[in-house]
């Protein structure tokens, strides 16, 4: 067992080590209060900044040809399974396309749906050469559709001044391209207004 002097010396040394910012006088003053609250100095942890992963720029995507479809892949038969998947996707989206469903409800769903894999037909156009083009939508951009026809030809059809029709399970929907100039990701959040007549 330690003597009182040894205990006092140990406590003083311990407190001095535990509270390095305090003077000897301050420590002696603290000892008169009987209860001592020890200070704890933790090392500040430096937060590591998360590096944001940067995507490719539009120029880099063009240089890498990310969106180009190789000529040997431009075959209508290859994308028929994609069309079947799209039909199932629309049926699930509309909770089953029943004959008693109201057309404007189906139209509203189709306007916001992903159209990759849909078979569309250009029904009206200010450019007569586009009228009658039918095929599967392979890519949708802000201003154009890339469509593969049954003749295995890849057509780039502008949305502007064109009216497209698509049919699924007896429901025929018309898309006015001039009002549809949005990216697929932006379209899902857009509110479309019902209008009586729409010009090309």
UniProtKB/TrEMBL annotation:
InterPro entries: RNase_P/MRP_Rpp29-subunit, RNase_P/MRP_Rpp29_sf, Rof/RNase_P-like, Rpp29/RNP1. One of its GO terms (biological process) is rRNA processing. It is found in: Nucleus, Nucleolus. Keywords: Nucleus, Phosphoprotein, tRNA processing. The keyword tRNA processing applies. SMART domains: POP4 (SM00538). It comes from the Eukaryota. Coiled coil: none annotated. One of its GO terms (cellular component) is ribonuclease MRP complex. GO terms for molecular function: ribonuclease P RNA binding. Component of ribonuclease P, a ribonucleoprotein complex that generates mature tRNA molecules by cleaving their 5'-ends. Component of nuclear RNase P and RNase MRP ribonucleoproteins. RNase P consists of a catalytic RNA moiety and 10 different protein chains; POP1, POP4, POP5, POP7, RPP14, RPP21, RPP25, RPP30, RPP38 and RPP40. Within the RNase P complex, POP1, POP7 and RPP25 form the 'finger' subcomplex, POP5, RPP14, RPP40 and homodimeric RPP30 form the 'palm' subcomplex, and RPP21, POP4 and RPP38 form the 'wrist' subcomplex. All subunits of the RNase P complex interact with the catalytic RNA. Several subunits of RNase P are also part of the RNase MRP complex. Belongs to the eukaryotic/archaeal RNase P protein component 1 family. This is Ribonuclease P protein subunit p29.
């Amino acid at each position: 067992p330690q003597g009182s002097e040894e205990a006092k010396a140990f406590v003083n040394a311990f407190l001095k080590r535990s509270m390095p910012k305090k003077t000897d006088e301050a420590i002696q003053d603290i000892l008169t209060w009987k209860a001592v609250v020890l200070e704890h100095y933790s090392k500040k942890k430096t937060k590591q900044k998360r590096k944001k992963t940067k995507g490719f720029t539009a120029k880099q995507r063009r240089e890498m040809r990310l969106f180009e479809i190789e000529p040997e892949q431009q075959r209508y038969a290859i994308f028929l399974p994609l069309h079947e998947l799209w039909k199932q996707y629309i049926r699930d989206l509309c909770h089953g396309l029943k004959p008693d469903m109201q057309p404007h409800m189906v139209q509203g769903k189709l306007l916001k749906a992903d159209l990759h894999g849909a078979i569309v037909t250009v029904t009206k156009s200010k450019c007569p050469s586009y009228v009658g083009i039918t095929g599967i939508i392979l890519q949708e951009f802000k201003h154009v559709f890339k469509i593969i026809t049954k003749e295995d030809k890849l057509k780039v059809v502008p949305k502007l001044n064109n009216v497209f029709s698509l049919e699924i399970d007896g429901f025929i929907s018309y898309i006015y391209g001039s009002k549809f100039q949005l990216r697929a990701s932006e379209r899902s959040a857009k509110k479309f207004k019902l209008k009586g007549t729409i010009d090309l």
